[in-house]
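Need residues for this backbone.
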């Protein structure tokens, strides 16, 4: 039964009624100095539900301090930013990637700050290497609490132009890499009732031309996350799927691409790795199920798919076709 005072309670009164301390409604709702509307209004129920969800998140927050976290693809970009931010919050991080020299630099920078960090070089495409490296990482701190599957590459070009070698590299890294690493880490995560964090992409929700294959591999990551979430529930392992926005990382510069066409310049407005990393950490602490960055684009694509198709054709495909091809050997 809702207390009779709620229909006329102020925001401050409602905060005192909440289950967590003296919680307050977000100022972004513009309700700071207003009185709560009548309970029959949709706006009132929206406020009540939102506050209840926020209170539940506060009650179930995961403490980052002391967590043993393995991060793949951590030599740069989002992975390196995650390592830095997690370590600064007291986590014990193990960074992993193919580029050993870059990993060493990441670890040294963290250790110079007095933070706890180690490295285990690993190529997620190689199942034998993963099978050997994950136990090695777990042995450093006597187990694992969180696995962050961040390693990934992109392909820019038409589906009809990708070579078998590039296609295999894309699938091996973005799909098999997630599977191999998760398989090897499950036994350790089961002991700690830990968490798997899979890094997907907003494009997995709505592919754009020339990034079709990359989006397809990330859609597979979404499917893996959904299935794993149920399979691993028996072991009390939580699964978070984070669909990242376009981020200012080396993913663009290191993209596989059609050799007959140059890589286009990246968009001017891209998210900073540190901002994305902090957003991911917040989702980890709240034990979210899935987070989709740039959700406005996703909803627009669902509600007006033909409009998005037309915009993508005009802004992406037409400039691509107008660009004179670069023939190898010319």
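Answer:
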């Amino acid at each position: 039964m809702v207390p009779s005072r709620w229909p006329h309670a102020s925001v401050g009164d409602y905060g005192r009624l909440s289950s967590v301390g003296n919680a307050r409604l977000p100022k972004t709702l513009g309700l700071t100095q207003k009185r709560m509307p009548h309970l029959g209004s949709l706006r009132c129920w929206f406020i009540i539900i939102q506050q209840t969800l926020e209170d539940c998140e506060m009650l179930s927050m995961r403490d980052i301090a002391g967590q043993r976290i393995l991060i793949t693809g951590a030599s740069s970009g989002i992975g390196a930013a995650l390592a830095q931010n997690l370590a600064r919050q007291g986590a014990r991080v193990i960074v992993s990637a193919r580029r050993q020299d870059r990993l060493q630099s990441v670890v040294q920078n963290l250790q110079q700050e007095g933070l706890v960090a180690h490295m285990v070089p690993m190529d997620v495409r190689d199942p034998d290497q993963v099978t050997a490296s994950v136990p090695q990482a777990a042995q450093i701190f006597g187990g694992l609490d969180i696995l962050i599957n961040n390693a990934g590459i992109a392909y820019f070009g038409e589906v009809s132009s990708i070579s078998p070698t590039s296609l295999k590299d894309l699938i091996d890294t973005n799909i098999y890499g997630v599977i191999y690493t998760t398989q090897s880490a499950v036994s350790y995560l089961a002991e700690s009732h830990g968490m798997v964090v899979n890094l997907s992409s907003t494009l997995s929700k709505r592919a754009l031309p020339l990034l079709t294959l990359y989006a397809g591999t990330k859609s597979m990551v979404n499917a893996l996350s959904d299935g794993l979430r149920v399979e691993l529930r028996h072991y009390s392992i939580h699964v978070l799927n984070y669909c990242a926005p376009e981020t200012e990382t080396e993913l663009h510069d290191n993209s596989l691409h059609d050799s007959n066409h140059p890589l286009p310049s990246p968009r001017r407005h891209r998210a900073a790795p540190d901002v994305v990393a902090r957003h991911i950490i917040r989702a980890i602490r709240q034990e979210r199920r899935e987070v989709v960055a740039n959700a406005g684009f996703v909803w627009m694509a669902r509600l007006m798919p033909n409009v998005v198709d037309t915009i993508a054709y005009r802004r992406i495909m037409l400039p691509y076709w107008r660009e004179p091809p670069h023939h190898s050997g010319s």
